[in-house]
Amino acid sequence: MNLVFDIDGTICFDGQQIDEEITRRLTNLHNVRHRIIFASARPIRDLLPVLPKAFHDMSLIGGNGSIISEKQIIQTLATISHTDFQIIKDVIKKYDLNYIVDDKWDYAANVSATNEIYKRLDPLHLAQKQSIDVITSPIKVILLNISTQHFEAIATHLSEKAPHLSLINHSNELNIDITAQHINKYTAIEYILGSNPEYIAFGNDHNDITMLNNAETGYFVNNKALNLPIFENNYKLNSIEPNAASICKILDQLLDS
């Protein structure tokens, strides 16, 4: 079976590494020929430090589906157009926003060191930090620390002026994730496995909704800070507690099946 795992908040709870007991079970599942796919909001650059080296050859989805790595060969699936990127940059300038812009490997960033996401930004110094104007093929943009009073206006402006973008509005965190149109974790899964793929998925956030809703069986690692009523009528979706023990219980069931 194909098993797809989000990382942060799903199988990684400290932002730095996957729990050892989860890692052991994932290794065992791989050894009995289950295919393991990791699907993260992180770009591949920032996904690698979280994964044990033995997992680096597996299928990796990064940037909310904008980029993949298979056997350590990285491929960009879609970039944000020059026109849409200019609209984003105009918004950044107008509202004086913090941001992270990723291309295939390097990045541009203006983010406070106190922001949680700062700790996950190129922790092994694998890439080059660039000026935002040097980035010509962005795969993903995060707008950070948007003021409450401006959040809805910014989200609406981007939706209307740049309809060829995919937006994930994290209103609870006051962040907006931006990729090219029709790019998400599920479209990347389809690229890897083919159309109508069969898989089991684990996720915990807005960017996992499409992936979970299209899974044969989905496990929503219950982030109580989120209000995701879209899952209420999905009989294929199971809600589990956000801890390693709950994940390991499901992985043990898969190992025994």
TrEMBL record:
Highest taxon of the lineage: Bacteria
GO cellular component: cytosol
Database matches in InterPro entries: HAD-like_sf, HAD-SF_hydro_IIB, HAD_sf
Pfam families the record matches: Hydrolase_3
Keywords associated with the record: Hydrolase
GO molecular function, one term: phosphatase activity
Protein name (Swiss-Prot/TrEMBL): HAD family phosphatase
